[in-house]
Amino acid sequence: MIILGIETSCDETAAAVVRGVGNKVEVLSGVVASQIEIHKKYGGVVPEVAARAHVLNILPVVNEALKGVKKINAIAVTVGPGLVTSLLVGVETAKTLAYAWHVPTVAINHIEGHIYANWLRPIRNDKGQMTNVKNKIKFPAIILTVSGGHTMLVLMKGHGKYKVLGETRDDAAGEAFDKAAQLLHLGYPGGPEIAAAAAKLRSRNIIPPTPLYQGGITLPRPMLNDKNFDFSFSGLKTALLYGIQKNKNWKKKIPEYAYEFQQAVAEVLVHKTIKAAKLYGVKNIMLSGGVAANVELRNQLKKAVENKLSGVKLIIPEFKYCTDNAAMVAAAGYFHAKRKNYTAWRKLKTDANLELR
Ligand code: KG4
Ligand code: ZN
User: Fold this and answer.
1) What is the pLDDT of residues 133-149, one digit of tens each?
2) Which side of the chain, N or C, has fewer Cβ within a 10 Å radius?
């Protein structure tokens, strides 16, 4: 089954084509037009500007993704959550194509899209033959989704069966990285900037091989020991603000602050993910969303799974499928289409606050 995926929920205009076979998904094409350069000067995404850029980009992006593709069996499109005017561009495009081509449509929740990035793994051997299911994902699974807009721990009992265990009560993990980067006078988006600043300590060779190193700077680990699976990152950002306000020489310690901030976020995320995995006796843990591109988080989670959980497999998407893309949306669409879970194009509706159910 060949699926066209369309994603315009935030600041990336994306289209991709995947082929689904059994439990595997193969990416045939993927195009992402990023608006990072446009929004950089504002230090964040400006919704009206984003929507206008989507309007300009969507048809060339879809056209590029469709090059060499002869037939589409269904169109999967992100309908929410996200910026409503941005979502509308993708949804109206999907409706128009479905009407013109007489193909069914699938409504995808953006978080579900991020989750399905974990199904996008190389599935051909050197000779180009489909390999045997090395990438079989077993349920129940726990997925930690960490992006610019969301921080969520989800228990997945099967395809399309989600239970949200916990969420952020204020800022999302990616949003926290973005705000911390702003406080430290680093660029946008903040996640990669904080990670790069923190890595400078390593290149200066001043990190002792202990995760407890704080360079004299300490930040809180919010809600680390709370019984629930919720998160909170706005206090961490405020603690960073107070920290640098009290330190006249903070500009000389930017790598130390960035390191400690990244460490605080990663520790809380890893701790709660492991706790949930133990409680629900899961077989797989998956990571997804833009912050899943953070190398420190990936490494800490790998170590924790190895040391604290036996027989549990950790799956992490390739870097390019962590941040917003349409291949993940098409992959989610494939598993819906397999269950014939279509939404008629006339009934496709954007929902900025769509919940994962
Ligand atoms: O998933 P995504 O592309 O968009 C949303 O759905 O929000 O995530 C974007 C977020 C931004 O906040 C960005 O700072 C963060 O992901 N991010 C990172 C890294 N790369 C992107 N955060 C930490 N470390 C990274 N390497
Ligand atoms: Zn996203």
Assistant:
1) 555 899 999 999 999 99
2) C
Residue 185: left (phi > 0), alpha (psi -120 to 50), or beta?
A: left
Number of Cβ within a 10 Å radius of residue 129: 9
What lies within 8 Å, CB to CB, of 256 at 6+ separation is 201, 214, 215, 216, 217
Length of the chain: 357
Q: At 33, phi and psi to the nearest 5?
A: -100, 110
**Torsions phi, psi for 79 (to 5 deg):** -105, -10
Atom of ligand 1 nearest to the CA of 295: 26
**Per-residue pLDDT at 38:** 84
Q: What is the pLDDT of residue 272?
A: 98
Tokens matching residue 311? 């027989």
- φ, ψ of residue 145 in degrees (nearest 5): -105, 120
166 touches ligand 1 (CB under 6 Å) = no
From the CB of 191, is ligand 1 less than 6 Å away?
Answer: yes
Q: What is the pTM of this model?
A: 0.93
User: 317: Cβ below 6 Å to ligand 1?
Assistant: no
Is the distance from the beta carbon of residue 43 to the nearest atom of ligand 1 less than 6 Å?
A: no
- With a 6 Å cutoff on the Cβ, whether 324 touches ligand 1 is yes
Output the CA–CA distances (angstroms, integers) from residue 188 to 36, 39, 149, 256, in the order listed: 8, 8, 15, 19
User: Which ligand has the minimum distance to the alpha carbon of residue 113?
Assistant: 2
Report residues of the chain scoring pLDDT below 70.
123, 130-135, 205-215
Q: List pLDDT tens digits, range 299-342.
A: 999 999 999 999 999 999 999 999 999 999 999 999 999 999 99
Distance 147 CA to ligand 1 centre (A): 5
**Which string of DSSP letters, residue by residue, matches 97-116?**
HHHHHT--EEEEEHHHHHHH
Ligand 2 centroid, distance to 130 Cα (angstroms): 29
State the helix-helix crossing angle for 254-280 and 190-203, rounded to 10 degrees. 110
**293 touches ligand 1 (CB under 6 Å):** yes
Nearest residue CA, atom 10 of ligand 1?
A: 148
Return d(Cα 324, Cα 98) in angstroms, integer. 23
